[in-house]
Write a structure and sequence with these properties.
Elements: H1 2-14, E1 17-24, H2 30-40, H3 46-59, H4 76-81, E2 88-93, E3 98-103, H5 111-118, E4 123-129, H6 136-147, E5 152-158, H7 167-181, E6 188-193, H8 217-223, E7 236-246, E8 249-255, E9 266-270, E10 274-282, E11 296-301, E12 312-315, E13 321-332, E14 343-348, E15 351-364, E16 371-372, E17 382-395, H9 402-405, E18 406-411, E19 417-426, H10 429-432, H11 442-449, E20 454-459, H12 466-479, E21 484-488, H13 489-492, H14 504-523, E22 527-531, H15 537-546, E23 552-558, H16 561-567, H17 572-577, E24 599-602, H18 608-621
Parallel strand pairs: 1-3, 1-4, 4-5, 5-6, 20-22, 20-23, 21-22, 23-24
Antiparallel strand pairs: 2-3, 7-8, 7-12, 8-11, 9-10, 9-12, 10-11, 13-17, 13-19, 14-15, 14-18, 15-16, 15-17, 18-19
Helix pairs in contact: 12-18, 14-15
Amino acid sequence: MAATIEAYLREQAAKTTLRFLTCGSVDDGKSTLIGRLLYDSKLIFEDQLAALEADSKRLGTQGEAIDLALLVDGLAAEREQGITIDVAYRFFATDRRKFVVADTPGHEQYTRNMATGASNADVAVILVDARKGVLTQTRRHSYIVSLFGIRNVVLAVNKMDLVDYGETVFREIVDDYANFARALGDLDIHAIPMSALKGDNVTHRSTAMDWYRGPTLLEHLETVQVDHDLAARPFRLPVQWVNRPNLDFRGFAGTVTSGQVRPGDAVRVLPSGRESTVTRIVTLDGDLAEAQPGQAITLVLADEIDISRGDVIVAAAAPPQVSDQLAVHLLWMSDQAMYPGRQYYLKTGTRTVPCVVTELKHTVNVNTMETQPAKSLGLNEVGVANVSLGQRLAFEPFRENRELGSFILIDRQTNATVGAGLFDFALRRADNIVWQALAVDKAHRAALKHQQPCVIWLTGLSGSGKSTIANLLESRLHDLGRHTYLLDGDNVRHGLNRDLGFTEADRVENIRRVGETAKLMVDAGLITIVSFISPFRSERRMVRGLLEAGEFIEVFVDTPLEVCEARDPKGLYRRARAGEIANFTGISSDYEPPEQPELHIQTVACTPEQGAERIMQALAERGIIPGF
């Protein structure tokens, strides 16, 4: 018995594993197809089959017959609505291969979930309803599949039983898809007519479609060749954890993503660039003479090098690139649009760094593959962009390394994942631009002026009194001999920002430019007063992040909308109400009030002079104008 079990385990270990996903438009039969594969492979236990039969009578869509889709649609909402929402992973095996299949949702709202499944797949099974043909979501999923480097595609023309198994229908769909797919690059497309519900050409050859001479879906999946030669690539180990159980041991734990490593190998640590030699490869089961891709190990190095989580240990002779400015493909996953200039966290592998999307070059039309200029990226849209990182990191183009070539973007306030992307290449200008050391710095300039520089940021609705208070404040500071400069929203739009309108994208860029200007003025040693509506919290946080602690003082000039509208000194509210001004803050565009401003001035309870006086007192308390 022991020998039989050992032989079985050796046989299973020798099998290759294929990861594939099913995708396509809504109700094309993805869940039913996976259910059919599991059912026909006899991988359903008796208690599961009994539960499936009961669920089919209560929740199924096939009358008295078994609804195979319920095998993978496990969420209550999925069963109630008859659609897939989340990604469901299932394992099954045949005599020839092991499989991990991802059932991904077809609904446009859950495209981000589909992208998650595509990120780890080797083969994509793209289903098409024979009655409907190639749809927009079919094209979108196909583009995402190609974007994530999947070259092996099965075009599964499903529900052939509903079109009388007609060969003409199948050929027309195949031709239509082939014409579209030419723009996706070098894809290996294999088309199969099938009926997942009836089982035709899924695991058994269909007698109803004797005109089809190719393999069944399962036969194709058992024999398709994919490139898994990770061991032949250069060694890469993203550090997950510094293992220091005692004073005598210090190792660096992680999972090998590519290449091989042995004791004695020369390695380099990125982004620092320090080099050393591997002395031990430690695992729970003892030291190894060699580590392969996919193995979780702890490396011990010959030299004491400062290494932390997020660093990458690589082959010294073949290191990846290191940069802080990169060109990327970006799939947006949030209802809140992406605007260049907003700050996010970028997470790749085990490293998380601050990030700004500096430029959106264009979006991609998934129907025509044409590029289109854009100022923002909406939900489920794909764009090509440039990103600037707060720190240099090691990366490789996604086509060369999935682990070091992919990333997600995280909202800095909510910690929600808002985008997923692929690194394309480093921007050449990143290597040409370095910080120039200056003999005279901010401290010297501030000392010469006998003051502490800062930004006093007044935010509030139009007509709230920001500019009036800002003018009074600068006059008071000027009378005290302080060196100041006032950046006013209207004045800046006559020069620096004259090319910007009032869309949300332009408002973001407006504040980004003003924030960078204010930072330079603080560096010059000035007390900088900024009077801008600045309606979005994210941009105000961005400016705060540009400055050192204590240098950004947010002043909320709080005036009710009805009071601002009654004042209406420039007649803007009247025009906005008449529809003559679009995107007007408070009327047709939102204002996000500060949550924890350094100073909250309610203008209905004080005069502008009193408001300016309160700011002066706050500056004195912070030591910015000592002796006031």
